[in-house]
Prior knowledge:
The structure holds 2 protein chains of 2 kinds. Chain A has helices spanning about 10-40, 55-60, 60-95, 100-115, 120-130, 135-140, 155-180, 185-195, 200-225, 230-235, 245-255, 260-285. Chain A is mainly alpha-helical. Chain A has a single domain (about 60-255, about 265-290), classed as MetI-like fold. In chain A, helix 3 (about 60-95) packs across helix 9 (about 200-225) and helix 8 (about 185-195) runs antiparallel to helix 9. Chain A is globular and about 75 Å long. Chain B is mainly alpha-helical. Chain B has a single domain, classed as MetI-like fold (Orthogonal Bundle), CATH 1.10.3720.10. In chain B, helix 3 (about 50-85) crosses helix 6 (about 125-155), helix 4 (about 90-100) packs across helix 6 (about 125-155) and helix 6 runs antiparallel to helix 9. The longest helix of chain B has about 35 residues, at about 50-85. Mean pLDDT of chain B is about 90; it is low at about 260-263. The chains are: A mainly alpha, B mainly alpha.
Amino acid sequence: xxxxxxxxxxxxxxxxxxxxxxxxxxxxxxxxxxxxxxxxxxxxxxxxxxxxxxxxxxxxxxxxxxxxxxxxxxxxxxxxxxxxxxxxxxxxxxxxxxxxxxxxxxxxxxxxxxxxxxxxxxxxxxxxxxxxxxxxxxxxxxxxxxxxxxxxxxxxxxxxxxxxxxxxxxxxxxxxxxxxxxxxxxxxxxxxxxxxxxxxxxxxxxxxxxxxxxxxxxxxxxxxxxxxxxxxxxxxxxxxxxxxxxxxxxxxxxxxxxxxxxxxxxxxxxxxxxxxxxxxxxxxxxxxxxxx
Amino acid sequence: xxxxxxxxxxxxxxxxxxxxxxxxxxxxxxxxxxxxxxxxxxxxxxxxxxxxxxxxxxxxxxxxxxxxxxxxxxxxxxxxxxxxxxxxxxxxxxxxxxxxxxxxxxxxxxxxxxxxxxxxxxxxxxxxxxxxxxxxxxxxxxxxxxxxxxxxxxxxxxxxxxxxxxxxxxxxxxxxxxxxxxxxxxxxxxxxxxxxxxxxxxxxxxxxxxxxxxxxxxxxxxxxxxxxxxxxxxxxxxxxxxxxxxxxxxxxxxxxxxxxxxx
Lengths: 292, 263
């Protein structure tokens, strides 16, 4: 698209082009960039309207640090488990020589499940693993195993992680499938010809090639879980102290009693998700070498 | 070959169990409203609830507006960037990635602080203004998907030739976009539209914090106050999501596969 012909009436075209792009630019500035910059700025303004680092320092209190820590752990656990499970399922349906129809079924289902987040997902897991959930009751009546007496609770760290996996695994399947498709048949044939076992192929060829895509998608899954609130809120109310729920309470009723601190909380969230996405972009740029 | 197929089947079966069991459990739970035997009472209760009808209609309407605004914002921009301003492409890619980096809750917090009733643009000062803000928030949330859908659609057609042909016939730019480009990328635009709808219909965070009577906050409220209706609503939501995704799959079959260079 670089061979643009010199326009006969450059001035008129110039305005047309910019007129077409203008709605997008105005929209992005008004509803994406300005609100974010405003919050970033507000994080550095004190009650008196002067520049201050107090809000940022205010993040380093026990309650807020604990919220960040549990958020990071839940996002990390659900991203890591989701990435491993997603990779395993994607490998099984793409390279496992399973019946042909299975792949498209799994991909379609993944598209649905990765979008089936939020409040309804919380309902589904309460119906499954809640105190009156089907799995809880079956385990209790048939196997005489009470998961709640064993310390499990759907409203806890592992309950939330298990719930998040419902959209994390499908997202991983959708994102990693192109990379697995990129593993050329010639490579496994070549390694077979050289006498390598299947294990050796995966150890020395397959996984090293998939590794960047895996890491990249992992960071994307992390950011995905870190910003999510609806599922957690519907599942646990405000009983689980994760950052998005803390921020929700702050927006609703100034729970921290300091708007500047609220903005700093939001800035912290942006910083963490941005870091995860930068890792993703850097790694995926490297991974693309193998996609050609 | 048999032992080699063991692991793929095992992984697939475990995965299928994890994804199907919650759906089965939710469906089973939704049928238990009447004591002693299964019935669809909870669904009847949901559908006859005026709040369900009102919030669902509201969210559907907001979704339609978000789709229209999304198309108006994205399609001309992608068209001009492809045709005349290719150097802006990386910037556009970056901007459309931002909604994946900035969590929705941060975005809406920014809206509330920036566009409050005492600001220059007091969106949150009136119900209509807040509705507009909600629509724009949803357009932003869906932008990564809408942009990619439209961009893929435009890559598959020969934008340059189509534009030149239309210009020779005397069409102006607006006409080229609405009656040449748009019909040619209709399938891609509709995919973006259905994805937007799937995102908007049950969205909780933005609607709740802007205090609008949308379907997402209604779901949350029912979840906190009722026993069997939530599982019925979860099944209904799943069917809606499945419907929207199914439409995208169906549309993909009609999409042009490669650029029709000479035709």
